[in-house]
Amino acid sequence: MSAARWRTSSYTNSDGGTCVEVADGVAGWVPVRDSKRRTGPTLVVSAAAWGPFVATLKAS
Question: At 51, is the secondary structure helix, strand, or coil?
Answer without folding.
Answer: helix
